[in-house]
Design brief:
It is a single chain. This protein starts with a strand and ends with a helix. It is built from six helices and ten strands; from the N terminus they run βββαβααβαββαβββα. It has a single domain, classed as Rossmann fold, CATH 3.40.50. The strands form two sheets. The protein has an eight-stranded mixed β-sheet, with helices on both faces. The relative contact order is 0.12. It is of the alpha/beta class and 237 residues long. 36% of the residues lie in helices and 26% in strands.
Length: 237
């Protein structure tokens, strides 16, 4: 396994992502971008990029907050995330800069790129689709599903998989239904897997915050990972 940090920019703001790949790879490989949760690029998202390399892809843990910018508490995380939720056009530009960065790497087959994301990162991968990003597909793990108000969406041809905790208090049933209707109207190939008795952040072993409605689920984590692997194998073929 090999990895390196890559600095890239959107406007005047520098960002830093981690690229991971199998050293023995003799040709460019499909890439999977990993979008971090609300705390910023961290060991969890970096580890998922390395997991992608173990699966035979090139993994890239992106950064949408800025080089070295990280949250360390609920309050700090919220403060970092909120400006991008309020300005989804800015968020889209930062996501597009990360996609362009990945596409330019010599280890990457630029015609086969996908993205996965967790929590806030799940919203990010769906906004990539809404922005018309040239991706094979995206996977949202316990992500927020609502589109930005007042922002036009081009939609791309990316296939969409949503892995959702049925009891997630941050994503009520009406938001799920609205998302399904949105994707159907857009014409995207979409699927949604809902896990019963499962709340927010079900993939994170450190999630244990009843006040936020977040808790780890070993079963949902395992099932969702298998679903993602199958999906990636299909769209990268």
């Amino acid at each position: 396994m090999a990895s390196r940090l890559i600095e890239y920019r959107e406007g005047d703001t520098p960002f830093e992502g981690q690229l991971a790949w199998a050293e023995q790879a003799s040709a460019p490989r499909p890439a999977v971008i990993v979008c971090h949760a609300w705390g910023g690029r961290d060991e969890f998202s970096d580890a998922r990029a390395r997991d992608m390399a173990q699966l035979g892809y090139v993994g890239f843990a992106l950064d949408v907050y800025g080089k070295g910018v990280r949250g360390g508490s609920v309050e700090e995380n919220q403060k970092l995330m909120q400006p991008l939720l309020a300005d989804r056009a800015l968020l889209r530009r930062r996501l597009a800069a990360a996609v362009a960065c990945v596409r330019a790497q010599p280890e990457v087959d630029s015609s086969r790129i996908a993205a996965i994301g967790y929590c806030f990162g799940g919203l990010c991968v769906l906004d990539m689709v809404r922005d018309g990003a040239d991706l094979r597909g995206v996977v949202s793990f316990h992500g927020i599903l609502s589109p930005a108000e007042g922002l036009d969406s081009a939609y791309g041809k990316a296939k969409v998989m949503v892995l959702h905790g049925h009891d997630d208090p941050m994503v009520p049933p009406e938001q799920v239904l609205a998302f399904e209707q949105e994707m159907t109207a857009a014409g995207n190939d979409w699927q949604l897997h809902a896990y019963g008795h499962t709340v927010h952040a079900f993939t994170n072993p450190e999630a244990n915050d009843p006040a936020l409605g977040a808790a780890y689920s070993e079963t949902a984590n395992r099932r969702s990972w298998i679903a993602m692997e199958t999906f990636l194998a299909e769209i990268m073929a």
